[in-house]
Amino acid sequence: MEAQNGVSANGDTMEHSGNDAASETRDDDRKIFIGGLSWETTEDNLKDFFSKHGEIENVNLKTDPNTGRSRGFAFVVFKAVDSVENVLNAGDLTIQNKKVEAKRAKARQGKVFVGGLPAELSEDEIKAHFGSFGKIAQMEMPFDKVRNQRKGFCFITFENESAMKELLRNPKQTLGGKEVDVKKATPRNDQMGFGGGPGFMRGGPRGAPRGGMMRGLLGAKK
């Protein structure tokens, strides 16, 4: 089936999201980035400092995976959107005698694979349906040149990852009276192995001898 072998123009494949998306919450609009932190600043220090601007849901201080030492920046998620505005309007921020930078965290995009699309559905109808979950940055509608028709799947990239997560709460969507499958799309890694399936490249690994050269090498070892 085409839906099982869907690959987008930039090499993305589809992946089951399971129940992970259902457990996620929208937090991009409640998240701020804090940079220029002192190496000694801890998550507790950040909680104490930013709690005066609003109730905090989560603090994520980024650390070096090898040393465990702070990398000098963190993300703070508040429980209310207004708290982010409070921080951004607070002027200069100083934590442990060090001036730090605070700005709205950049939202990550989210991409999904949609399989089993009815042929009679127009691109505008598909866009209207999925656009109700969030602003769409890009739609990829693969076309079958042999059959001269659109293929039965597409890829949709949302400007905000939270829209994708909201959509994946219900991976079975109904369009044009037909149920379609929605899965998270992930980049294909062309360096992982052999064969022609999604996520793999054809032939042997780069640099490996082929054809007569390979047979010659094998013969020399006999």
UniProtKB/TrEMBL annotation:
One of its GO terms (molecular function) is RNA binding. Residues 13-27 have a biased composition (Basic and acidic residues). Residues 1-27, 187-222 are annotated as: Disordered. InterPro entries: Nucleotide-bd_a/b_plait_sf, RBD_domain_sf, RRM_dom. Gene3D superfamilies: 3.30.70.330. Residues 30-107, 110-187 form the RRM domain. It holds the Pfam family RRM_1. Keywords: Nucleus, RNA-binding. The keyword Nucleus applies. Its main location: nucleus. It is found in: Nucleus. SUPFAM superfamilies: RNA-binding domain, RBD. GO terms for cellular component: chromatin; nucleoplasm. GO terms for biological process: regulation of gene expression. Residues 193-214 have a biased composition (Gly residues). Transmembrane segments: none annotated. Residues 1-11 have a biased composition (Polar residues). The keyword Cytoplasm does not apply. This is RRM domain-containing protein. It comes from Notodromas monacha. The lineage of its organism: Eukaryota, Metazoa, Ecdysozoa, Arthropoda, Crustacea.
